[in-house]
Every structure is written in structure tokens, then in C-alpha cells.
Amino acid sequence: MEEIVNNFESLREFLKKMIVDILNLEDVTVQEIDNDSPLFREGLGLDSIDALELVVAIEKTFNIIIADEDVGKKAFASINALAGFIQEGHKQG
Amino acid sequence: MQWVETEEVVRFNEVDEWGMAWYGHYMAWFEIGRMSLLKRFDLLPAQMVELGYIAPVVSLKCDFKHSATCGDRIIIRTTVVKPEIAALKFKFEIFLKENRTLLAHGETTQVLLTTKRKMIYRLTGELESRINNLVSYCLEE
User: Fold this and answer.
1) Which of A26, A55, A65, B63 is deepest in the core (most CB within 10 A)?
2) Which pLDDT tens digit goes with each residue over A3-38?
3) From residue B19, how far is each of A55, B24, B99, B102 by CA, in Å?
4) Contacts of B118 in chain A (CB under 8 A)
5) What is the pTM of this model?
6) Which B positions 68-127 lie with beta carbon below 8 A of chain A?
7) Interface mutation vs chain B, best among A39, A46, A48, most B CBs within 10 Å
């Protein structure tokens, strides 16, 4: 996991796969997820329950806590933002 | 799993043109069941607001199995499912009191927001402890 977190490119791929798997996205492939698009609403179209599922998966996988919507807005702004957020949290943790 | 049971009667104004309990009223009966369960754990809507939270429903499912008619006594059974996420998931069953015929079963999911409409992703403090009490009660054998 350490190796994945430290490599931005592989972390992004890991997160895309995690999103597709955890949220059972049937109509979306890993390749289709854009690095800069928002994950919620107008972007990938995820909803509030999806956010809660992702938060639990991120906490279990990376031991990084996303406490509420304020933090979530930044973390889930895009795949790039999420990867950055996890790398930052990992350094501090 | 523990269920809380509440008894109601199907009223004249709750049946449709065909004499059957109108489907929309099942949601109101779910709500009666939810309140009687929440009340035991000091989680009624007003009590949640006192703690600084609201819990809007974001998902609702209901399957109808049998019809009820005016004057029927019904039993609403309610429980909660262990949440893997910071949400409240209720399950409901509605039976005819007379012979325990299952009329409908369903579930709702509620997310938790602060009273300032900010969604919370993790339970903390007094809210967490009251929800834990509710969940532990419902999971008892």
C-alpha cells in the first residue's frame, strides 16, 4: 500500500478501481473516470450514500478520516484532488 | 433481531376507490413505527435537533403483498439494520393483526446532517452513543 500511496499515478488508478468496485458502478469503467471531473453530481454522478460508502472504504484502506461534507467537498472534488488528499493525509499520519 | 410493534387501524380516509388501503399511507405507517422506536432511545426528530442534527430520508423501498381495508387492525413492526456507514436504515413490516397476514414490507435510509445542513460522514459524541444504543437493542437475539 505504501508504494501505491507514494506514486500519484498508481494511487489514482487504485482509487478509480476502488470507486467502481465499492459503489458497484455498472455503467462506468475505470478508463472512463476523468482525473479532473467532480465525483459527485455533475461529474461521475455519485450521491450522498456513495459518499458515505467511499468514506468508510478510504478509512479502512488508508486510515484517513473524512469527517464531514466540508472535508468531503475538497477530497471528492476530483480523482486528482482525492489522490492529493490521501497523499497529504498519509504524510501527516 | 428485535422489532418494535405498533398497532393502528385503517381509517375510512385511508382507503381508495377500490376499498383498499391507499399505497401512500404505508409510508405514514412506517413513520409511526419509526417514531415509536426512536422514542425509546431519545432520538425523536426534536431531540435530534437539540443535539444539532436532522436525518432526512434519501431512499425508500416498499413491496406490497396483500391489501387491507377500512377498519382492519394492523401491526407495524420496525427495526434498524446495523449500519456500515453513517446512516440510519430502518426495516418495516406491516401485518394484519387478525391473522398475521403480511401486507407490506419496506425500508428507508436516512443520512445525517447538522442543523446547518452540512452532511456528516462519521458519527460522534452523544448522537453516536444514542444511535449505538438503538442499534444494539435491535440486534439483540
Assistant:
1) A55
2) 899 999 999 999 999 999 999 998 899 999 999 999
3) 47, 14, 20, 18
4) 68-70
5) 0.90
6) 84-87, 109, 111, 114, 118-122
7) A48
**Whole-number Å distance between alpha carbons of B71 and B89:** 30
The closest of A23, A30, A24, A37 to A80, measured between CA atoms, is: A37
Kindly list the residues from chain A whose CB atom is less than 8 angstroms away from the CB atom of residue B120.
67-69
Q: Does A49 touch chain B (CB under 8 A)?
A: yes
Residue contact B122–A49, C-beta within 8 A: no
What is the structure's pLDDT at A2?
A: 84
Closest CA of chain B from A14, distance in Å: 21
pLDDT digits (tens, 9 = 90+) for B68-103: 999 999 999 999 998 899 999 999 999 999 999 999
Cβ-Cβ contacts under 8 Å for B94 (sequence gap 6 or more):
B26, B29, B74, B75, B76, B77, B102, B103, B104, B105
Number of neighbours of residue A50 by Cβ within 10 angstroms:
20
Pick the residue with more confidence: A44 or B98? B98
Of B85, B109, B118, the CB nearest to A69: B118
CATH of the domain at A32: 1.10.1200.10
Query: CATH number for the B4-139 domain, one of 3.10.129.10, 3.10.310.40, 2.60.120.10, 3.50.50.60?
Result: 3.10.129.10
- Domain span including residue A59: 2-92
Sequence ranges of the domains in chain B: 4-139
